């Protein structure tokens, strides 16, 4: 994933503390570092940069399965809002731990939080997990039908709260945590909030994470109320909100003009193929990549995808975008979004999307030691005729053997070293049941359960 796309056979990597000191062929590295303190033999395995999940709702993990096969309005008003608005900081802590376990098992070393209620709980969990993260608060200063405890927030309170979070948590956990600004989505944001967010992000030199152009109704609503002909992207361009520090999630309903605007402003896009297929539609990802937009991959939250595995998203991203060519060209195109492009989206594009590419996203001298060990001798990847394509089309989370973040092993031989998995699972079951009761969410029973 370096600029020359180098892949070393019989490679080796030297790591000192949290930093990559050297990378090359193993005979050369072994000669150079003959006085090494510790040598780890990973013969027969593949070493990759850690994957970066650029859109995940860690707080929604306890809500996995609460909104399957329901329409969008039910999803939002009767399941997700009651769930999120009844969460405590402790729930958020437990939810993020549970989500983190799944992220680590799928080879993720860094993620971008899409925006939740209790950043303090998330930050505490990230500190424990050993992951790297860009955390954001869920921010809304307007909108219809919001839960009572969210509805009264002023624009000033939204900005102030985020500034305080930045002061408290930015660059904490050995530099693994960064604080971003959040905008939940356009229909919950006044123009004043957007302008304040844009200016505050510049002042703090941080990023903005926002759901953009998710459904056709959103674009219609924007066109009807904000004085533009098209939708959210056109409006954001008009108010000078599009910039290289904006991470736009989903970005499904955009036309070619808007794709050009995204490219011109160097906006980053997080493509979440599973959630898009289930709830939103087909995003023009090939067109965005052709136009030079930096597109990365995200899982979205557990209630819109259920699987928080970036490995599954890589597989889906390739298939969906090949199949989507039927709509634009009349025939499928198996050459669209090849494996090397997908790998780039999950690594170096992910790093650019979270504005961290100087330090992560590739295995290069001077970058942080965020890397994963893949075991290709597990049944799902045997035989290995084309190593690069197998990583996208064959690899499962089960092939991820070990994970290192910031120079520390956080998973070794499938065992997470930073916490007790079974303890988190018990805590999560308890917290999820209590939260459902408190939120008054009832899942109608399916089939004839006796
Ligand atoms: Zn989302």
Automatic annotation (TrEMBL):
It comes from the Eukaryota. One of its GO terms (molecular function) is hydrolase activity. CDD domains: ATZ_TRZ_like. The keyword Hydrolase applies. It holds the Pfam family Amidohydro_1. Residues 47-409 form the Amidohydrolase-related domain. Keywords: Hydrolase. This is Amidohydrolase-related domain-containing protein. It comes from Cinchona calisaya.
